[in-house]
Amino acid sequence: MYRRPLQSVVRKIINVSASRATYGKLFNVKETPQAATEEEVGAFTKVIEAMGFTGPLKYNKWKIKIAALRMYTCCVERVNYDEFFEKCSLPDTLNSWFLVAQLHVWMCLVRMRQQGREGKYMCRYIVHSMWEDVEQRSKIMGIDAIHRKESMRAMTETFYAAIFGYDEGILSDDGVLAAALWRNMFNRQCEDPRQLELILEYVRKQMQFIDTLDGEDLLLTGEVKWRPLLEKDAQSILKVPTPTYNDAGL
């Protein structure tokens, strides 16, 4: 109930944003970069961004917002949540759905942060789309306003704690990342170490795959594909090919 009804809602959000983006000449999208680039940020741009505003970007802001909505939709509609629930022994609840969704949102955020100011701007709207979606799903489930507010507050704390832990883990070794997954994805309740190993491997191979995607395409389209949770010989994706030599050592 908390999943299927809102797939159409996410599509509606994208369609509404797209219609706004095409309304009037102010929202015309140009594929060519605008004058201001990350390397040419002027003093005025630095001042207004220090005040919390966003200065001129390389691409049209509405184009980036729509791409952010589409990227979030990829985190929702292109992930087999039932498979995650089954393989990780997670209950089929809104909270479990959120734990899986935030993992994929985080991976998108890590990738888009590499795209400079435009990527950071896009990250803001990926997260915004997520909270809009979570709130709509809560309403569909009939959760009253008071409990919905409490739930949103708890999910917000969970999300930022997870982001901090995952960021630390992806920059460290498998032990640190596995600990972050155990705390956040499994809520400190994982009795089968093979489940933790499966998700750890999934994150590593997925991050490696996302890094190969063109950053400019991601900024303009938001299209992300996900590798399957279960793959034959998935470890080969993570291993660096071993060089082979002939008898002469060449």
UniProtKB/TrEMBL annotation:
Location of the Ubiquinol-cytochrome c chaperone domain: 86-222
Pfam families reported for this sequence: Ubiq_cyt_C_chap (PF03981)
GO BP terms, alphabetized: mitochondrial respiratory chain complex III assembly
Top-level lineage group: Eukaryota
GO cellular component, one term: mitochondrion
Family from the record: Belongs to the CBP3 family.
Name of protein: Ubiquinol-cytochrome c chaperone domain-containing protein
Organism from which the protein derives: Coregonus suidteri
Taxonomic lineage: Eukaryota, Metazoa, Chordata, Craniata, Vertebrata
